[in-house]
Amino acid sequence: MRSVFILLCFFLLPLYLSAQSFEVHSPGNKITMFIALDESGAPHYSVMQNGHTVVQKSDLGLTLKNIGSLAENFIVQAHLHGEIDTTWNTVWGETTTIRDHHSFLILTLKQKQTDIIMQIECRVFDDGVGFRYIFPWQEKLSNFIVEDELTTFALTGDHMAFWIPGDYDTNEYPYAHTRLSEVDAITASNKYPEIGTRAPFAKNAVQSPLLMKTDSGLYISIFEAALVHYPAMDLLIEPDHVLKASLVPDALGNKAYLTTYCSTPWRTIIVGEKATDILASRITLNLNEPNKLENTDWIQPMKFMGIWWGMHVGTQTWNYSNAKNIDLASTDWNALTPNGKHGATTENAKAYIDFAAANGIQGLLIEGWDVGWEDWFGKWKENVFDFVTPYPDFDPDIVSAYAKQKGVQLIMHHETSGSVTNYERRLPAAVDFMVKYGYPSVKTGYVGFIIPRGEHHDGQWMVDHYVYVADYLAKHRITLDAHEPVRPTGLCRTYPNWLACEAARGNEFNAWSQGNPPEHETILPFTRLLGGPMDYTPGIFQIKVNYYDSSSTRQVHTTLVKQLALYVTMYSPLQMAADLPENYMRFPDAFQFIKDVPVEWDTVKYIDAEPGDYLAIARKEKDAPDWYIGCITDEEARDMDISLDFLDNGKYIATIYADAKDADWKENPMQYEITDQIVTNKTVLHIRMAPGGGCAIKIRPKK
Ligand code: NOJ
Ligand code: CA
């Protein structure tokens, strides 16, 4: 293996002959990153995996406003190499420990005409690379504005890609699956008018994480890690399959305002020979800073229910009345006429608390409890919510006392409607309210265009906001689940109270739009989930919406059993049992799986997967001998053999929740069969999944 590498290095060297060049080999020698200055002093890099080029000679650098290009005329001042091998404990996660084993290079460059010092830091793992720009404190550079980032990723071919349109304000798209050259982001974006805040900006722009598959079968993901104080990076597909970084601008068109000492987020390239290698990669988390919180004992992963799905299917409302043109400051809420469909009433909350307590579900989210919902959507209005005033039919004293008595944790809801100025002003009072009433967790939401007007969900200003909220909440021992934020980039390692984000197209779209195609959940773990857990809201049993509204043709695009499997395939420390209690009561034997499935795990086995087609994952419950398996398929029926060789010796009972023989996501989605089988680590389970279906399995030792 080593000799192959040396040969290939010689092959590549001519590129950089008259230049200074460096190589970083991953600890197991699988990945090599080359970095060099060419004749004009321009930094470039390339990446190889097992002797094959993954990324060809690509550009590095930035353009700074009023300063100019930081992409050429550099000399190397210093270079530092080394290797790190360390293992850290997760507060929560797919595994209890994570190994961080990489080689690194820190290259210090000085630009001849400006004397500006820029460092390029590279970390090379056996499954990919991360690199970033660092600007040390220096006389010649203190406060500066990034006009553009010039990083490119020159790919070796017109790979197949799983992509969503590049967009400054939303990531709530289904994935398209085409060659890079076939991307048409504007046409794709226009297919989804149901997304309230679309801001696609170029035909050739896609978002990261971008998953690609080469014609020779290699999987490549391009992403970023530790997005702080910088805008999100989209990717422009340029000629010859070169991807170029494209930073989300602010209201003035600038990209980032930085002060030395500072660094950019990491740009990452994850490479896998098998699709499951992408799922197993821990590069994103490893490139984030360690946990910042001194004490984490109070952080509680949990399953939760919500006064929520009723609003999405239209049987309930967030708003208390049907009044129009409400003004937050002057409205007498007690004088409004109730519309009779308000979901967040004291009475409903108590009934949900009873149901959650009786079924071992730890949390309850209550949306629509606070005044303002009459006039919240699509207005670009500043003062919509105050986050402390309940509607007349919701009594926080009674509800919180009842929840406490029943041992259920209340999850606060702060929908900001995109008015972030208003939210930041009111956050201290909102948090005092939560502390007073004992809410340990909050779901935030950013539906709507952002205020300050002209800022975007994915720009630097908002990136700062999300981190500010996570940090502020941590100081008050509150956990966070952010909806409609920028996609996460592993910051849950640094702020482990940041349990989940939505930041992708969730199950809710199935209730009121064309929905999510059956393949959707087979793609998310390869894309969005690389940055951290998603609050996808699985567990919908009543698949067709015409159950509530006979005129509706909407439906969840899965079978009921696939909804169960999602608790295993979509890792999250915060999992919603998203359907209505009455629907769980109709199917108590299937609901048993949701009651049993944990949210805390020791370890994981990625059994088999092909993005866009199928996925099978096994997880072992934390501090318990039980295993859970989730398998899902796209619109194709599929047979799968699952070896249970990961079990210890001894006999186990496998309870198998399978699609019924004639089940089908469209025609017959709610039929299932539950069977028990004695298994050992020699057993190979044969399972069959219906079109749009899945299989969920609980395995426990036989006593
Ligand atoms: C969108 C969120 O994703 C959803 O969960 C929530 O119910 C609505 N916004 C209202 O805040
Ligand atoms: Ca959403």
The ligands found in this model are:
1-deoxynojirimycin, calcium ion
Whole-number average pLDDT?
96
Which radius of gyration do the C-alpha atoms yield?
26 Å
| Annotation, overall tally of beta strands | 37
> Span between N and C termini?
49 Å
So what's the overall shape? Answer: globular
- Secondary-structure class: alpha+beta
Instruction: Tell me the major beta sheet.
Output: 10 strands, antiparallel
Helix content: 10-25%
Assembly category: single chain
Beta-strand content: 25-35%
Q: Can you count the helices?
A: 14
Low-confidence stretches: 1-18
Question: Can you put this structure into words, describing what you see?
Answer:
The chain is an alpha+beta fold. The chain has 14 helices and 37 strands. Strands 7, 8, 9, 10, 13, 14, 16, 17, 21 and 22 form a 10-stranded antiparallel beta sheet that branches. The longest helix is centred in the middle third of the chain and has 18 residues, at 420-437. The protein starts with a helix and ends with a strand. The model is unreliable at 1-18 (pLDDT under 50). Bound molecules: 1-deoxynojirimycin (NOJ) and calcium ion. 1-deoxynojirimycin binds at residues 308, 367, 415, 445, 447, 483, 502, 506, 508.
Topology diagram in text:
Layout: H1 2-12, E1 20-25, E2 31-37, E3 43-49, E4 52-59, E5 62-64, E6 68-70, E7 74-89, E8 97-111, E9 117-125, E10 128-135, E11 143-149, E12 152-155, E13 160-163, E14 176-179, H2 185-190, E15 205-207, E16 210-213, E17 219-225, E18 233-238, E19 242-247, E20 256-259, E21 262-263, E22 266-272, H3 275-280, H4 283-286, E23 302-307, H5 309-313, H6 346-358, E24 363-366, H7 396-406, E25 409-415, H8 420-437, E26 441-445, H9 460-475, E27 479-483, E28 498-501, H10 509-512, H11 520-523, H12 560-569, E29 574-576, H13 581-586, H14 588-596, E30 601-610, E31 614-621, E32 627-633, E33 638-643, E34 652-659, E35 672-679, E36 684-689, E37 694-701
Helix pairs in contact: 6-7, 8-9
The structure holds 1-deoxynojirimycin (NOJ) and calcium ion (CA).
